[in-house]
Fold this sequence. Notes:
- 18% of the residues lie in helices and 40% in strands.
- The chain is of the alpha+beta class.
- The chain has one domain (27-163): Immunoglobulin-like (Sandwich), CATH 2.60.40.10.
- It is elongated and about 50 Å long.
- Mean pLDDT is 85; it is low at 1-29.
Amino acid sequence: MHYRISWLLIGILFSSLACNSTTKVLPMNQQLNISAQCRGNTQCVFNGKDIFIDISIINKQGVDVGFPLEYVQKTGPSIELTDTKTKASSYVRKNLADHSLRDNFFTIQSGKSATLEWIITADELNQFNKDCVDITAKIIVASEILVDGKKVNFQGSDLLKFSDKRCK
């Protein structure tokens, strides 16, 4: 029964789009691109200290995009850490922020980018194995963004791999 309703809703959506040829529908993950890197540490080698990461939000569209940069900088991205050997995983804790900041959009011009700065602590990286850090981090940025004056859901991600020289 539920699949029939789903197909009906999909049919209505496509027929309404066909009637309005000026509607621009962007796939959810294509308005912006996310690229993460370890600051000053291109290979993300863990040396027992906190690791600073820079997360670039890149606008490759032909239009400017509004992004709630201040809000996401305060809350942080979602980061899932996964131990490569055991496959155990956990999420880095996010921060609370004033919800009114979600409507404070920073304009990322076409072809330009904005950067979020974040820290993954040594304790977060050591949680699975204090003797050998070999972790993959999935960094997810999700938010409502502003495209052509309309709010659109966005989610993008990138992967980083953290390891240290103690691993054999």
